Amino acid sequence: MFFTPHITVACIVHAQGKLLVVEERIDGKLTWNQPAGHLEADESLIAAMKREICEETGLDLTPDYLVGVHQWTAKDGTPFIRFLFSCEIETCCSTTPQDSDIERCHWLTPMQIMESTQLRSPLVAESIKLWQSGSRHPLTLFHWFESPPQTPY
Questions:
Q1: For this protein, what is any one GO molecular function term (predicted)?
Q2: What is the rounded CA–CA span in Å between residue 66 and residue 151?
Q3: Rounded distance, CA 80 to CA 116, Å?
Q4: Could you tell me what percent of the chain has a pLDDT over 70?
Q5: Where are the domains of the chain?
């Protein structure tokens, strides 16, 4: 059987003890997620993460670390491989989402997020737990083989 998971990226953005979440409407319900999205063709994982952060928050940020990789299957049977990054910034700055699917962004404590009933998927809380465990890996783990990505990282 041929396995074709959705490849996605997500980022824990941390400032002043709070994490940035995006609020988006999924099937008519408001949900919370980390800035996240799908990898596009001819795009490096890091470039995808930078693009998603900008589209969903309006912020120009580069991830600092790879926190981990989750393999997960959604309730509808859709398989995902999610690369989780982290980014540390000094202040909880204002956001201006560029993506019309994002209603607004919130700076919340990890506990506020993990106790919420609005999480888009269980990966939101699991990502915070992995980040809180101190998991950090250098971005030098990533190498683009053959043709270069359109957007360098």
A1: hydrolase activity
A2: 18
A3: 22
A4: 95
A5: 6-141
Q: How far, CA to CA in Å, does 146 sit from each of 4, 42, 143, 149?
A: 22, 11, 10, 9
Q: What is the dihedral of CA 99, 103, 105, 108, to 10 degrees?
A: -150
Count H helices, E strands: the chain?
A: 3, 7
Which H/E stretch holds residue 103?
strand 102-108
What region does 83 belong to: left with phi over 0, alpha with psi -120 to 50, or beta? beta
CATH topology of domain 6-141: Nucleoside Triphosphate Pyrophosphohydrolase (3.90.79)
Residue 11 has pLDDT above 90, yes or no: yes
d(CA 104, CA 85): 21
**What contacts 103, CB < 8 A, 6 or more positions away?**
23, 24, 25, 30, 97
- Residue 38, token pair as written in the block: 């799908």
Q: Which pTM was predicted? A: 0.92
| 136 pLDDT above the threshold of 90 | yes
